[in-house]
Amino acid sequence: xxxxxxxxxxxxxxxxxxxxxxxxxxxESLALAKEVRSxxxxxxxxxxxxxxxxxxxxxxxxxxxSSVLVGGQDLHWEAQGAFTGEVSARQLADAGCRxxxxxxxxxxxxxxxxxxxxxxxxxxxxxxxxxxxxCVGETLDEREAxxxxxxxxxxxxxxxxxxxxxxxxxxxVAYEPVWAIGxxxxxxxxxxxxxxxxxxxxxxxxxxEKLAAGMRILYGGSxxxxxxxxxxxxxxxxxxxxGGESLKAANFVRIIQFKTQAGMxxxx
Length: 268
Hints:
CATH topology: TIM Barrel
Structural class: alpha/beta
Shape: globular
Number of strands: 8
Helix content: 40-55%
Number of helices: 13
CATH superfamily: Aldolase class I
């Protein structure tokens, strides 16, 4: 397989997702959602707000009728049952979610998320009609040990094991180098591009070239208003999974309105 076959892609619409993590009251969530909604243009990228479970219905009501999607930050792989504290894919969809984050590095590090659980959660999300945002990425120790590609390959293969190309058609991947999350350190655009290219080629080689060409791959890791333009100038960066900056309406709207005109023409 030639590299050019991988890189010949259909148009991929940019996707900017905000991950609010464990922040904001209901009143604060409502206010921020309204500001983001008013700042989104008609012809911009796809936008999602991945909010705490408590705020899903409030935020869904605030953005109803707009192009802004609401997302969950996690889910359980079972449809229902005696799983105290968990939320199912069906419950997320019923509350107003259209998308969900799966396998975020904080879930892996703090709560024991594994490639196996990511795979099971992916199946549940797809079964409920949610758009999964599957997170992969290496730690600083792994990068310094030259294990970046090995880690990414293990995580991607683990997440997608057992799925057909058709089943994975709506899946979004978020590459988030763990060493860049919440640290203020951002992967240089060229570093991010290298990892995104590796993921796309891996999906093409392991699963399907057409799927790989159309799959949106987001970058996550200290994305800010002052670095989004240079990141989005890279050909294989299809958007961003934004943490802290998504809690600041003006900054997040600026990220949504990134200025890489060539990128918008390529992917819009």
